[in-house]
Amino acid sequence: MKVFISHRSEDKDEVDLLLKNVNGIDIQFHRTLEASDELWKKKVSSKMSNSDIVLFFLGSTVNESKPVSWEFDLAKKLRKKCFAIKLKNGQVPSYIEDIKFINSQPKQIESTLNNSKLISTDELLIEQYKIMVSSTEKVTEQRLKVNNLFITVTTSLLSISALVGKLIGFENKNTAMLAVGIMLFFSIVAFVISFFWQKLINSYGQLNTGKFTVINEIENQLQTNLFQREWEILQKDIGYKSNTKTETTIIIWFRVFIIVIGLIEVLYLINRQFNLF
Q: All domains of the chain, ordered by start, with CATH?
């Protein structure tokens, strides 16, 4: 495990003394004076990029150190796991934030660094990205199950209504009215159920919208835009319509079909009652 050490040059002796008895750590320093600030920053960036952890030693004059401040900003930019240790009479600069402090005892330093999870922020974001993408796939699978369930329920109700009507019979006025009344009841139930069907589909659509918003935010942090780019291509180049709109349209037409059946049943009842046709 590589640990990049950041401190003021005047704190060198105290830092070396603390790190002398720390084992199992590949310590990375950059204490060489360079010809220019740009060259120094380039070498520090390289070493810090190749390190797993950045450890800041905060002395009494660290507030006056622009290099330490720059190294802290770089560590945050590189999304490195950071720790800090206060030296004797050490100060905590205002720019130090969201950082864990370690006791200055060598064994405590060694234990904390060795036991620290070596997963970087990018790796964590990628794992979160995978979880979110997987969850959208599960939502899609659940939507298919819901569609299949409601199609089965509504078509079964209509089939049962037709079967009941056939069993009761239409031979005389009384049985015909009873049969059509029961058929109309089943049609109304199927019609009402279609609204719950549509509500669930809209809920799944909103759920996926929220998930893709989170995915887009993670992609921005990872500096990639796969899903966003795919969505732009689907909408602008292909004219793709979302599954929610397509499924809602199917439900509406299915509801129209139920209404037509219900109207036929009502007209039949009226005709049987008043002999209009």
A: 2-115 (3.40.50.450), 121-274 (no CATH)
